[in-house]
Amino acid sequence: MKLKFYKYHGAGNDFIIIENLHEEIKEEEKSGLAKKLCHRRFGIGGDGLIFAEPSSKADIKMRIFNPDGSEAEMCGNGIRCLAKHASNFLLKNKKLIRIETLAGVKEVEITKNQGKVSYVRVAMGKPKFDRKDIPALGEGELIKEKLEGLEITAVNIGVPHVVVFVEDVEKVDVETLGRKIRYNELFPQGTNVNFVQKLKENEFKIRTYERGVEKETLACGTGICASGVVAATLGIAKEDELLLFHAKGGDVYVELKEEIYMIGPAEFVFYGFYSSI
Length: 277
Fold this sequence. Notes:
CATH superfamily of the largest domain: Diaminopimelate Epimerase, Chain A, domain 1
Distance between the termini: 9 Å
Number of helices: 4
C-alpha cells in the first residue's frame, strides 16, 4: 500500500499526519505503523503519528500514536499541526475547528496573516489535580511532594504530567531523572515529566521527558500547559497574564482563564509517499 503522508512540527515536536478519512487503515494496523514510520533510522522519523479521521461530534478526529506504538489521549503540539493541516487542506480555510480527541473535543482557533497560518490557539480544557484523575496512587492532590529527591507536583491536562521546578534546567539529567519518575510505581499508567526554570516574571524555560516517546523531546505542548497551571497554582506565575515558555524547539504561550489555552506555531515541513516493499 502506498501512503501519502505530511510532516509537520510544533516548536520542534515533529509529527507525521496521514489522512484516514475513509478509514482504509484499520485499527489493528495503527500501532505497528506508528512504530515503523516514527523510527528515526528506518522510517520517516517523528515524535508521533497522527491519523486525521471522520468525527460524528466534531469537524475532525485526531488519533495519535507514539513511536513505541502506544496511543496518547491528546497532544498539544500535535493538535496544532493537525488543525493547520485541516484548515489548509480539508476544511476550506476554516478558522475555528473542533477536533475530537480521546481527551474530549478541543476547539482550535487559526489566525492567518496574508493567507498563511501565523499561530494556532487551542482550548485545552480544565486541569485535574486529584490523584484518581492523573492517575496516581493515594488520595487527594499530589502537590509539592518528594520523589527521587525532587519536589514534584502532578496534574492531568488531557494526559498525566509531573512538573518539577529547578534552579538551572540545563544542568538537569532529563533522561535519567525523567525516566525514573515516568516509571515510578506512584503512576500506574506512567507520566510525562517536565523540568522548569523561572527566568523572570511569567517567563520560563522548560525541558520535557515524554511518555511514549521515551526520551526528551524538543517541546511538549501539554507539558507546557501543565507547567503553566502548576506555576500559577504554586504562586510562581500570575494567572491573568500570558505565560511564555522557551522549549528547545521554540516558544509557546499559555493563557490561564476559566480553562487553559495554548498559543504556538505549527509548521509544514514536507510531504511524501511511503510504501512497504
